[in-house]
Amino acid sequence: MPEECILLAHGDGGALTHRLVQEIFLRHFDHPALRDLTDAALLHLPEGRLAMTTDTFVVKPLFFPGGDIGKLAVAGTVNDLAVSGARPLYLTAAFILEEGFPLADLEQVVASLARTAREAGVAVVAGDTKVVERGCGDGVYINTTGAGVVPAGRDLGYHRIMPGDAVIVNGTIGDHGLAILSKRAGIEFDTPVESDCAPMNGLTDMLLERFAEAVRFMRDPTRGGVATTLNEVAQSTGLNIILEEQALPVREEVQGAAELLGLDPLYLANEGKVLIVAAPEAVEEILTTLRRHPLGLNAAAIGRVEAGTGVGRGPGQGAGQRTGQGSGQGAGRGRVFLRTPLGGHRIVDMLAGDPLPRIC
Asked: Residue 305 half-sphere exposure, CB side, CA atoms within 13 Å?
């Protein structure tokens, strides 16, 4: 097997392992807590509540329009911390490598991960590498754990959401899902579709610094898209969410491709979007603030929260009518509805069966 590929010996803890760590990982992930290669990183944390999250990335293909698995690993973990109100500080990164994976591709992934971490202002402070036999992996899988701190005065959660609140998204939806699908299937569009993959902690921190009281809740709509995320909110709060179809920000090329493929952008994954539930009186100021940030240029108010009494159904529109990719399952008191341009309402159910697996 060529030396420029991963060998099983790269995972045995011997000379090749040390060479891999020194020549690729340490070269890109340089940090004082990492350099000594001890069994644990000793870190300093500012005051506040500790926030931690972990995620594993198995996206296929590894490289896609707008990003790659390295960029995605940072963005996904940083965003989970950010939408919880935390300021992300540290990451760990564990790599499961398949025998035969090109070292050049590994270095490209590692460099991208390191670059995205620097852009997000977080440090990679610990990691691990394992090698599996050819055919037992898919090039590389990455697990990341993130740690951050929630400053005093920030309180986000289901318990703060109330009827009358507005639902806001910071930009167009469905971009990541269509970018992965087009690359995987070899589909080309007249206007290229790129993933929205990006760390959002700069945007969320800016927002919470100014609107800590008005912002009730945040969540990034990744797998299952906006529809599934909002169904989780509705089920957890017992409140209804009414989406305005005309207000949903969807790129023309994404909408057209989704219609052609029988997909609904509401169910497509996003990797650089945040759903914000906020007090209605602050909506315009929040939108103005978001639109000043590069990741919020297309921010829009897309719906509202109502009491969970079944409101939102128009005449003759019962539970049998729903968007095409929902489960049709009963979901408790809280439901999500889509108000059409003609004034009717459709039930938007939880995603049942992923139309696009291995999305992140």
From this structure: 28
